[in-house]
Design brief:
With about 500 residues, this protein is mainly alpha-helical.
């Protein structure tokens, strides 16, 4: 866990700074200078752009995870694995781009009634998709080389600073909203350009066609693996995008603006978890290659335990102050409180079950994951059709939460019966009990002051000390102590 802790610590610290930038952008500046409908337009274009990228990648991200360790040889340019992957995704982008343009009338018909403003910016989905597609390839390639930090800086810091600059220009009336949408789409090419130059600096940017030395037999294996994981990837991305797409279709852009803002808040609480997954997933591929089940089992439990403690603790602190946080938003965002709660229930379980996705996706039984992914998409879509008309955006959140529960429980049971490994320990159940008790205390603890800032400080301190203090006092998660010690030493080392 040493390498994981070190890289996860650095990426978490960087991502935390990026999180502050992201919160200022989407959680403050968006709300101050844009209408709720404009927020919905920007976030809908972003969601469709990410969907475009995932449709175009043809499962390449997972094939790099799975097979790069077998081709890793710098002297031989890693057998041309990078250019091979780039050719695959660029072909996918051309195909999906052609489909996206050909079916424009059909797609426009879906949004004409409730979200007509989106139609003016239809084509700007493509730059976001292309930029994010190239970033995904370079990012996972660097991950396989155990180089994680620059990728986080490029996406979480540089891109968000670029968004902040655009917001400033809009606020100063130097650009209008249409200009903002255009430049907001184009800046998604900045992160992949940074990673490309970084690969050049490392001497790892091998794009000569002559370097491709992958046999036809191995190409067939890679393509078969990619095809199945392509569908799985689409399923997971569709689950994240379906809510936004269907809310815009059935309710409108204002509701989309509220929902996507709350989704951003829930994503913010997942930063430490995503940092752990970022550096843990490549290790899973190495363990499969070496058939090291003991190390995989240990990593599985450690990642799950740490994710549970951090995720549950951050949720409790946030939930204790949920009214305070939403008091700064427009009144129409009040409905987002219920959305936040249900989304976080699903996200917490997803975090708790840790790297089961990476284990499944890189195992020989990866084809069975297709069953779970199709079930996930089917559940979310069906529940959205039923619940959105009744409960609005809260119905979409309930749909996603229920689907994530079914999906993760199914996959974790399959991994257990197939390989005999699971992430559970008895101490985790004490952590969950602390979380339930913490929720109860939040509900029954009286308010001792009418000053909302003092109330925020008091509730944050009490909830944080109760949960994290209990975890440390009773040693419910040893890795947390090591993590905090390493964090403190890292900060002291970097201090002047």
């Amino acid at each position: 866990m040493g390498l994981v802790q070190k890289d996860a610590l650095r990426t978490t610290l960087i991502s935390s700074f990026g999180l502050i930038l992201g919160y200022l952008n989407k959680g403050l500046f968006f709300l101050l200078i844009f209408s709720t409908e404009q927020i919905g337009v920007v976030n809908l274009i972003f969601s469709l752009g990410i969907l475009f990228a995932q449709f175009s990648n043809f499962g390449t991200v997972y094939s790099i995870w799975k097979f790069f360790p077998f081709f890793k040889n710098k002297e031989q340019a890693h057998h041309g694995f990078l250019i091979f992957s780039l050719i695959t995704v660029l072909f996918g982008a051309l195909l999906i781009g052609a489909i996206f343009l050909f079916f424009r009338p059909n797609i426009e018909a879906v949004y004409l009634a409730k979200s007509p403003m989106f139609l003016d910016y239809y084509y700007w989905v493509i730059p976001i998709g292309l930029g994010y597609l190239l970033y995904m390839v370079f990012e996972v390639y660097l991950r396989s080389l155990f180089k994680n930090v620059i990728s986080v800086i490029a996406m979480d810091i540089v891109l968000r600073l670029s968004v902040s600059l655009l917001l400033l220009l809009f606020w100063l009336d130097l650009i209008n909203f249409s200009d903002f949408v255009v430049w907001h789409s184009l800046i998604f090419f900045i992160p992949p350009l940074i990673l490309m130059f970084y690969l050049m600096y490392l001497g790892e940017f091998f794009i000569q066609l002559s370097k491709i030395q992958i046999s036809k037999r191995f190409r067939k294996i890679i393509f078969n693996f990619s095809a199945f994981n392509y569908i799985n990837t689409l399923g997971r991305v569709l689950v994240n995008a379906l809510d936004v797409i269907m809310i815009a279709q059935y309710i409108g852009l204002r509701a989309t603006g509220v929902y996507t803002t709350v989704v951003f808040l829930t994503s913010a609480l997942q930063v430490p978890y995503k940092s752990l997954i970022r550096v843990s997933a490549p290790l899973v591929s190495e363990y499969w290659k070496e058939r090291d089940f003991l190390s995989m089992k240990l990593l599985y439990r450690q990642v799950s335990s740490v994710s549970l403690v951090i995720g549950l603790g951050l949720f409790l602190v946030t939930w204790a102050n949920i009214d305070f946080l939403f008091s700064f938003l427009k009144p129409e965002f009040e409905e987002g409180i219920g959305v936040f709660f249900f989304l976080m229930m699903g996200r917490l379980l997803d975090m708790y079950f840790g790297i089961n996705g990476a284990i499944f996706a890189t195992s020989k039984k990866f084809k069975y994951d297709l069953i779970f992914t199709l079930s996930l998409v089917g559940i979310v879509y069906s529940l959205n059709l039923y619940l959105i008309p009744i409960y609005g955006i809260k119905g979409a959140a309930i749909s996603t939460a229920l689907a994530l529960v079914v999906y993760n429980v199914g996959r974790i049971l399959f991994v257990y019966f197939a390989y005999g490994i699971h992430p559970f320990t008895w101490k985790q159940f004490w952590v969950i009990s602390l979380g339930i008790l913490g929720m109860y205390l939040i509900m029954v603890t009286p308010v001792f002051t009418t000053n909302k800032w003092l109330q925020f400080i008091g509730q944050t301190t009490f909830t944080g000390l109760f949960f994290f203090g209990s975890v440390l006092l009773f040693n419910l998660e040893p890795e947390i102590k090591k993590y905090l010690k390493n964090a403190w030493n890292y900060i002291l080392k970097k201090s002047p």
